[in-house]
Structure formats: C-alpha cells, structure tokens
Amino acid sequence: MMRKVYRAVAAICLSCSAAVAIADTTEAACKIYPRGEDHTDVFLPCTFSQRQGYITINRGDGVTHQLSPEGDAPGYFADQHGRSVIRQSGLGDQGQIFRFPEESIYLYWNADRLTVSADDTGTAPFSTQDFDATTRLRCRRAGQQAFASCPAGIVRMENSQASITVQNQHGEQFTINFMSDYVNATNRELSSRLEGDTWILNFDDGEVWEVPIAAIEGG
C-alpha cells in the first residue's frame, strides 16, 4: 500500500522536478535508424553510462560507442574512431538522440519499451502488485486514424479521484491525474472533456486517449 500511496503523491506533486535522474550507468532501450530513414526494425536493449561528460553506450547487438566531449559547445562529441557525434533533445524526458555519420540512436530511459510489441493484450508492464487495478485504454498516436489499446496502472484515491500511469504506443510512460477540480498529466499539456461516461483527452503532441469513469472510480 505504501508503494501505491507514494506513486499517487509523486504523480500530483506539480512542484517536483520533471527531469529524469540518470545514474552513472542505467539500463535503456535503443532504436537504431539508418541515416536518412524514418523507419527501423532495430530495437534492442542497451546501457548508458556517463562520467564527467564522457559517455558509453553498450548496445545489445554487441556494438559499443565511446563518446568524448569535443569543443566548448554542449552536445558535441567524438567517438572512439574520431567521428563526430551530436547529442540532441527531441525525446523530452523520455531519452536522448545521438546522431552518428551513418545512423542515429534514439536512446530511451524506459527499458520497458521493449515489451510494447511483445504484449498487446495484457497490461504489462503494470501489475496489481504496484497498482490498485490495471487495464487497457483506447489510445491514438498523432497522425493515426484508428484507436489502439494501451496498458495502464490505476491508483485510486478518495472522492472518486485517481492517478493513472499509462504506456503509449511509443513505449513512453506518463501519469494522468483525475482530481476533483482538474485533469492534468506529468510533463505534457492536455485538454479534457467528459462525454457521457468517458473522458476524452487531447494532448498537445497529437495523442488522444479515452478513459472511462469506471476505470477511475472502480466498482
């Protein structure tokens, strides 16, 4: 129960820092895009290490990138072969992008992204060990016409309130808070409206989610 209370308090603490705390070495998930391509099937586990500005990325396919800071401007590196590498934002608090001469690595802090394709019927990575209930919600990413189904973990509170942690089709996790007088989400903006017994959530990045009142209140 204490874990559930902690999750609920952390989710609604708007004054908390939105930054992801990265340890010296952390498990991650890496998508590898060939240069100039916007599609890839290469999605594998990796580890990210950073010490005094020096970065090491160990990929699950056996490739290692050792990056050393280059110049005075942040985000510019040279790898162990002397090639220029640029680190970019673009993934928000979900990860970082590394641009190599022949490929790009989209590195995500949430290694659970690797389970998105493997489990499209259950509620993994969420379980009732950590949440009051789990479910799947209708979700639609930007530019998509049809709705898909995404996993969610629910922490319910008094007065028909709840914090629901979801994992979208990109594998990103965030929390949606349904409070008595507002609806918001961690690290992203949304507009909400209640249609019958379902909340319709439109996010600034183009995602759309539908959350039934029954998921919030239980019963």
Describe the protein's architecture and organization.
This is C-type lysozyme inhibitor domain-containing protein. The chain folds into two domains: 2-12 and 114-217, no CATH class; 25-108. The protein has helices spanning 2-12, 213-217, and strands at 25-34, 43-51, 54-59, 64-69, 76-78, 84-88, 95-99, 103-108, 133-140, 148-157, 161-167, 173-178, 183-185, 190-195, 198-203, 208-212. The longest helix is centred in the first third of the chain and has 11 residues, at 2-12. 7% of the residues lie in helices and 46% in strands. The protein is elongated and about 60 Å long. With 219 residues, it is mostly beta strands. The protein starts with a helix and ends with a helix.
In brief, what are we looking at here?
The protein is mostly beta strands. It contains 2 helices and 16 strands. It is 7% helix and 46% strand.
Search tags:
mainly beta; eight-stranded antiparallel β-barrel; eight-stranded antiparallel beta sheet; 7% helix; 46% strand
